[in-house]
Amino acid sequence: MLTKNFDLLEFEGQWLASFGRPEKNLKVIVFGNSGNGKTDFVVQMAKYLTRFGKVYYNSFEEGMSATLQEAFVRHNMMDVHGSLILGDKECYDTMFQRMGKRNSPKFCIVDSLDYMNFTAEQYKELVAAYGHKSFIFISWSAGRHPKTQAAKDIEYMVDIKIRVNEYKAYPRSRFGGNQPFVIWPEYWERKRQEAERAAEEAANTQAA
């Protein structure tokens, strides 16, 4: 065990700071309330992962929607169109078969667990059949945890758990890192400037 070599994804920059150096068969769950940046974060992750292999993004919840299209445009996904496969509401069986084909993607993104009614048993089946591949699952949330029991069960089985809130991703990764990932830097810069103005106005009021 001490001499075994593991195949790692050599993340860099902010990705390394947040998620460490994951194994090439990593399992991830991303959860958060609507409107907080889940889709934008996962699109960014999909684009970054194309550096390491082909990515399959199964948009089961939204399909080929205007919302997803806008996210793809924001993050210049045309730059990686040859390395990204977009699934339009593909069911579990279709997804399972796709991952078993010759030259199939190394990374599979499921959006979302809840809309697909994905089960913990299906998770185990996927991992058992394709243990050398990586899976990223998107989930709705209730508070600070995934919403459904299946998603909660899967949360315990994955390597990286990522809670998205107000355009930041907060990881718990067994590979290290664990620094918050800023999804929308302009939003947080605007918040910082607003806070500075408010503090300055408060100081001026006290001085008067």
Distance between the termini: 69 Å
**Poorly predicted ranges:** none
CATH level-four homologous superfamily name = P-loop containing nucleotide triphosphate hydrolases
Q: Judging from the principal axes of the Cα atoms, what is the shape? A: elongated
What this model shows, in words?
- This protein is an alpha/beta fold and 208 residues long.
- It has one domain: Rossmann fold (3-Layer(aba) Sandwich), CATH 3.40.50.300.
- It has helices spanning 13-19, 38-49, 66-74, 92-99, 113-116, 120-129, 149-157, 185-207; strands at residues 27-31, 55-59, 84-88, 107-111, 134-139, 141-142, 145-146, 160-165, 168-173, 181-182.
- An eight-stranded mixed sheet has the order 3-2-4-5-1-8-9-10, with helices on both faces.
- The termini are far apart.
- The model has no long low-confidence stretch (mean pLDDT 92).
Quick overview:
The protein is α/β, with parallel strands linked by helices and 208 residues long.
Question: Could you list some keywords that capture this structure?
Answer:
Rossmann fold; 10 strands; 208 residues
Write the layout of secondary structure elements.
Elements: H1 13-19, E1 27-31, H2 38-49, E2 55-59, H3 66-74, E3 84-88, H4 92-99, E4 107-111, H5 113-116, H6 120-129, E5 134-139, E6 141-142, E7 145-146, H7 149-157, E8 160-165, E9 168-173, E10 181-182, H8 185-207
